[in-house]
Amino acid sequence: MKPFPWQQEQWDRFQSLLAQDRLPHALLLCGPEGIGLGEFATAVSRLLLCGRPPEQAPCGECKSCVQFDGGTHQDFLRVELRDDHKQILVEDVRAMIDFMHLTTQHGRFKIALIDPADALNISSANTLLKTLEEPPADSLLILCSHRPDLLAVTIRSRCRRFEFPRAVTEQAVGWIAERLPDGTAELAGGLLAAAGNAPLLAMALAESDGLARQQAVLADLQRVRHGSDPVAVAKRWNEYGAGRVFGWVQSFLAELALRSLGHAAVRNSTVTNEHFQELTNELDLIGLISGYERAARGYQALQGPFNPNPLILLEEFLVDWQESGEGRGGRQR
Predict the structure, then answer these.
(1) Cβ atoms of residues 33 and 146 within 8 Å
(2) Rg (CA), the chain
(3) Strand order in the sheet with 76-79
(4) Does residue 270 form part of some domain?
(5) Which burial class, exposed, middle or buried, applies to 179 when counting CB atoms under 10 A from its CB (0-12, 13-18, 19+)?
(6) Which of 26, 125, 250, 260 is 20 to 30 A off residue 156, Cα-Cα?
(7) What is each CA distance from 57 to 50, 52, 66, 142, 220, in whole angstroms?
(8) Minimal CA–CA distance to 181: which of 202, 200, 206?
């Protein structure tokens, strides 16, 4: 219920706005997946709804805090994706607008949180825009977005934007190390780097044996290049989660491209250095960019409004990946 240690700068900025009575009617929280946008929004909401003065909030003891912590606060609404949809529906936004116009039950704020805001479709975004243009009194709308470029400019321009960069900080490493059994700074730093400097994704890697899976995916990239069955590999990758794997592949190929241009490694890839080196020797910049673009198309297809078969997307990527290697004689140097 508190902001994460790597979010202190943004938290201080919010506190400053509150102290100066300059709180906007809408906040747009932007940053990569796994950085904790939703948790920051929850911390903001909890503080604003507490019955104590801001300098004493959140107290965790007043009626408002007890209701918020129990998920029953009548002045707070969270708008999320329904289980069977990839877009936030216009009827959900309309219900949120009706909620925002109700009288507050605790006499402070009405707060609505939309997460992820980039899942708004055209109809729901247009409906939301009307409220952003004429917000109800004592209301706050919080939008969380990992891909703010997908939001309409008219929506972005009506929100106070808070940027959350990737957490390349000692605080993030320490936070991860504290939550690992026998965790060390070296292990925590490796996890953080493997997760693209997104601490919550780093913890997910630790809890799901993600580092070993990343290593397996990287090894598979090389093996498929040299003749392994792409269909069999795709089936295994699908068990890891197609979206997650496409994200890993993009990360791998982006780093390999940077290395080919003479940049220092951007990941602490002690687990995968051997495979990185072998792929670096085999791929040129054109091949890396082409592979990255194919992986990005697969990832975007899974994030879009339709429901493609993830196994087929993985098979198509791996077949193309293998054929592109054969077209260059198996070695692209």
Answers:
(1) yes
(2) 23
(3) 76-79, 110-114, 139-145, 26-30, 160-163
(4) yes
(5) middle
(6) 250
(7) 6, 6, 13, 19, 51
(8) 206
Domain total for the chain?
3
Range of the structural domain that residue 200 is part of: 168-207
Chunked in runs of 10, what are the mean pLDDT values of the chain (333 residues)? 91 94 96 96 95 86 93 95 86 95 88 95 93 91 95 95 93 93 83 90 87 89 92 96 93 85 59 67 85 94 86 96 70 39
Cα within 13 Å of Cα(146), Cβ side: 12
Cα–Cα distances in Å, from 148 out to 213, 225, 253? 29, 35, 24
The amino acid present at 41, given as its one-letter code, is A
- Domain annotation covers residue 40: yes
Half-sphere exposure of 211 (CA within 13 A, CB side): 19
The position carrying tokens 């703010």 is 148
Amino acid 265: pLDDT: 58
* SS3 call for 114: strand
